[in-house]
Amino acid sequence: MIRKRIVIVNKLGMHARPATLVVKTATKYRSEFTILKDDMEINGKSIMGVMTLAAEFGSELELVADGVDEEYLIKEMEELFASKFGEE
Amino acid sequence: MKKIKGISVSEGVAIGKAAIIHREVLHVDRKHIKAENASEELAKFKKDIKIVIAELEHLIQNYAFSLDQKEILSTQKMILADPEFVNRVNYLISEENCSRENAISIYFTEVADIFRNMDNQFFSQRLTDYEDVAYRLLSHILKKGNNRLGCLNDKSILIMDNVTPSFVTRVFEKKIKGIITVKGSRNCHSSIIARSMNLPMLVNASGLLNEVENDQLIIIDGNNGEVIIDPSPEVLLDYENQYKQEQNQKEKLLKLIDVQAKTTDDKIIKLMSNIEIPEEVERVVKYNSDGIGLFRTEFMFIDREELPTEEEQYKIYKQIAEKMLPEPVTIRTIDVGGDKLSRILNLSHEDNPNLGCRGIRISFENIPIFKQQIKAALRANVVGNIKLMFPMISAVSEIYQAKEIIEECKLELKDKAVEFNSDLPIGAMIEIPSAVVTSDVIAAECDFLSIGTNDLVQYILAVDRDNEAVASYYQSCHPSVLRSIQLTAENAHKRDIKVAVCGEMASEPRFVQLLLGLGVDELSVSPGRMLKIKNEILNSSLHDSQLLAEKCLQQKTSAEVMKLLN
Asked: Would you identify the CATH topology of the domain B439-566?
């Protein structure tokens, strides 16, 4: 299991489009993927879950991947968040 | 007989039978199933999801042209495949023995509560996506509101509360007579599409649903913005005659699609189109347009929650350019007042937005956004014949500045080894009086000029177009406007470049001869008006137009000019 803390750096936060990208990316892997924010814990492969995080600019998240390809999942996720979802 | 007022979106008369399509309120029974039927119910649920996903896929492939709409529908697809959703519904079916529609409804009610309790409106408004999916799925299961298109035929006038752009395209294929909506506005995307298809449409007909029943005879009077329900025989006869006349004219005009726009004395006039959204391109291609003379790019920036990326713009420009080949596509950089962009750009309030930070000024204030737009155009220009046009130019110094920024963009693309075509013609919109007066120096720096008559009239006469109190001062054929057009054309021709008119004046048949006579080389008009204007060109001689323009230029007042034109 890998845990990774990240901060939302794109201005608009994780709204519909980024949320879709997160789920699409997570679904490519076999590992389980969970996102934690404050006292919430959601399934990162669920669009509903990711949307309900309502993660705004500056929010702190913890990404947790668990499974055979966990490293790759976390690596691609980190890149995705760092790229500001290709928005800015 | 009853009359209801609305706002006309596209002109013309339609007579037909009311076909009301409601978004029915779906009633879901809190039904339970027998435990032994649970596995059968689970299988049915799985199948329902599969069918609705396929339906969404069909919509994405065939009816969603804009990236925006595609994204919305893709998100809906993703919701249906959401493991949390599927697991929760499966649980409700197998453990609590809910019927599938009951389970689905329970799940979406839970979801709606979560969204409603969010503090950030930006996130909570996405609830509509979930409501749409729930509706799609439940109406499929309950077999209600499902066969929505089935009840339409070539005699129908569709009545809806509101209509989506993709639905307008679909019902158009059913050859319906017209559309009336209770909500909507003249410039929403659905209205723009109906207008470019010349499909009679009336919006904002409030109260209509209380007055009309299915299959009742109704008339859309798009010329006066009225719906007539259950007309008297005399009124009906009147409208039938009007309708026949319009149809005859339409048929005559349709024969002109393949005819080249030229005057009786063989001067070829480039007849191009103005478009506001990518969906209109289909029409433009069908009408055999000589190109796109004005592609307004504002749709990507307003009513959106995020700015478009360079990549998104590139894809849109490329798609349009490819469809138009070999004809040119003139992309105008954003031309909105700060008031419309304030939400995404954090702009401050302006007391006088028309004289404030709009047009090219917004671009200069937000260089990264400007550069994205330029780079997207440079890249799309690899496959297409693209031109770039700048709005609200008040002095040639702004052209210098824009050119410098274009050069920077080219260097940045080169550094990143991104492919682009550096041969990108640029032009200035001539719509501010200072640009008219100095059009000689501006022409020297441009590859073409385009006169935006709407703003030109507004600025040269100091009259707000939207202020009814001064509406009578807004005179398109004021002598100052005619002289401005003539001077601009003369200065453009001295530099051997073309001058176009892309304002509303070009879309009005009665001004065509005048504009040609004043020296205008190209007209760019809304797609729905193309054939009407072409007809006018075909019946004009350049020589007579020049004589007419000369005479008009000698008049002292708008009224005198109008007299000559009528």
From this structure: TIM Barrel (3.20.20)
Q: Which amino acid is residue B31, in one-letter code?
A: K
Best to test chain B binding among A48, A84, A87 (most B CBs inside 10 Å): A48
Choose from A25, A29, A47 for mutation: most chain B CBs within 10 A.
A47
Contacts of A24 in chain B (CB under 8 A): 78
Q: Report chain B residues whose CB lies below 8 A from the CB of A16.
A: 71, 75, 126, 129, 305
We report the CATH number of the domain holding residue A57 as 3.30.1340.10
pTM: 0.73
- Is A40's Cβ below 8 Å from some Cβ in B? no
Tell if the CB–CB gap between A86 and B119 is shorter than 8 Å. no
Alpha-carbon separation of residue B352 from B81, B132, B335, B432 (angstroms): 49, 40, 16, 16
Q: Per-residue DSSP letters for B177-207?
A: SEEEESS--TTSHHHHHHHHTT--EEE--TT
How many structural domains compose chain A?
1
Query: Which are the contacts of B444, defined by CB distance < 8 A and separation ≥ 6?
Result: B396, B495
Could you please state the CATH topology (level 3) that the domain comprising B291-424 is classified under.
TIM Barrel (3.20.20)
- Residue B8 amino acid letter: S
Tens digit of pLDDT for each residue in B88-122? 999 999 999 999 999 999 999 888 888 888 877 76
The CATH number given to B2-21+148-253 is 3.50.30.10
Q: B291-424 and B439-566 share one CATH topology?
A: yes
Q: Which CATH class is domain B35-142?
A: mainly alpha
Q: Which domain holds residue A27?
A: 2-86
Q: Would the CB atoms of A87 and B85 count as touching at under 8 Å?
A: no
Each residue of B121-158: pLDDT tens digit? 767 767 777 888 888 888 888 876 545 677 788 999 99
